[in-house]
Amino acid sequence: MLKVETREPEERFFEDFFEGQEFPTVTKGPMMVGDQVRWAGACDNYESEFHHDEYVAKAQGLPGIILSGPLMASLLMTAVIQWTGRHGRLVRFFDQNRGSTMPRDLAYLKGRVKRAFEEGGKTFVELDCSITNQRGEVTTPGSALVELPRRGR
Amino acid sequence: MSAEVSEPPDYITPAVRAIIGAEAPPIEAPHAVEASEVRRFHQALMDASPRFWDPEAAARYGGPVAPIGFPVHAMRRMEDAPDPLDALQAGDHDGVDRRLRPGLPEVQVPLQRLVNGGYAYELFRYAHPGERIRLRSRYVDIYQRNGRTGPMIFVVIEDTYETVRGEPLLRSTNTIILR
Questions:
Q1: Looking at the 3D structure of chain A, how many domains does it have?
Q2: Superkingdom, according to UniProt (chain A) (predicted)?
Q3: In chain A, what residues touch B77 (CB-CB under 8 Å)?
Q4: What angle do CA A104, A108, A111 make, to 5 degrees?
Q5: Under 8 Å CB-to-CB from A58, ≥6 apart: which residues?
């Protein structure tokens, strides 16, 4: 039977990160109504009709069905965990739903190290992250703070 | 002839102002975190990290865990709770659910569009299958901004998620915009 590879994020340490470092872009999509339906099922939340009924979405002034902001934020948070590796501990995460992701849109998940620093005997990487669509519009700007151990400790 | 530009009404009425700081009674998820819901959640996130099911890969966490943002979505419908879809079919329902959290009073603002502005999370630790999650919610602030597209009401909600033993999991600050 065909299987997908399942593995933990790479092993990375504080020393592996530097200011201005760009992470490899993660591409999701084209997003589908199915992605939204699967998310609604995983959350047991079916109360926002504009996430699955185009008629309701347009009646509420939206251009059509939009994917859930928390779904997109969760995809971005997952990318942050993948980029910073299995030893990272996500301490803070912020995202803003600036634009909508609609069915058939691509989502490019991007990240860049803002600073790497030590505080109170702990080492952290702060990064800017975002989701950009195929038109170059930033739909979800965000940021994250990850605690990482030093190599050999 | 010049068109008069009228100021938008002040939607932060005394009744709205009175609910700033309101706290909901703590609510518990209807059941402990289940392996099946963890699986559906990590699959919805397209995240196939074995920490979610493989005890060996999850050894550093003391066993399999739920994705880090899971607690935010763990407050599922109780077995005996009314069907929320019934409320959407009520004749006078305008399509916007203003009960932003169970146990918090409605934000009585007659604006039609509700937008989830985003989240700021403080993350303490992963939840494990078998742990039951408790939520405490409160309105931190409610304020109005008048933009080019009209008035917008920002509702800032702090949600604190912890285990029923009081161990902190996640604190979320969610901004909801009514416009």
A1: 1
A2: Bacteria
A3: 44
A4: 160
A5: A64
Q: Containing domain of residue B105, as a range?
A: 14-33+96-178
User: What CATH number does residue A139 fall under?
Assistant: 3.10.129.10
Look at residue A52 and tell me if it is in a domain.
no
Do the domain assignments include residue B23? yes
The amino acid sitting at A129 is C
Phi, psi for A144 (deg, rounded to 5)? -150, 155
Asked whether the predicted pLDDT for residue B1 surpasses 60, the reply is no
Q: Which residues contact A23 (CB under 8 A, 6 or more apart)?
A: A79, A83, A110, A111, A112, A127
Q: Examine residue A42 and state whether it is found in any structural domain, yes or no.
A: no
Tell me how far apart the alpha carbons of residues B88 and A64 are, in angstroms, rounded to a whole number. Answer: 19
Report pLDDT for B98: 66
User: Is residue B110 situated within a structural domain?
Assistant: yes
Residue B157, in any domain of the structure? yes
Q: Of chain A residues 46-75, which have a CB less than 8 A from chain B?
A: 46-49, 56, 59-61, 69-71, 73-75
Taking only the tens place, the pLDDT of each residue in A123-142 is 999 999 999 999 999 999 99
Mean pLDDT (whole number) for A40-51? 91
What pLDDT digit, counting tens, does each position of B104-142 carry? Answer: 999 989 887 888 899 999 999 999 999 999 999 999 999
ipTM for the predicted complex comes to 0.94
Would an 8 Å CB–CB cutoff place A34 in contact with chain B? no
Interface of B with A in 84-103 (CB under 8 A): 84-85, 88, 95-97
Contact residues, chain A, for B117 at CB < 8 Å: 96-97
Model pLDDT, residue B35:
97
CB contact under 8 A, A70 and B97: no
Q: How far is A88 from chain B (nearest CA, A)?
A: 12
Question: CB B123 to CB A93 under 8 A?
Answer: yes
CATH number at residue B145: 3.10.129.10
A18 CA: distance to closest CA in chain B (Å): 23
Distance CA B18, CA A135 (A): 43
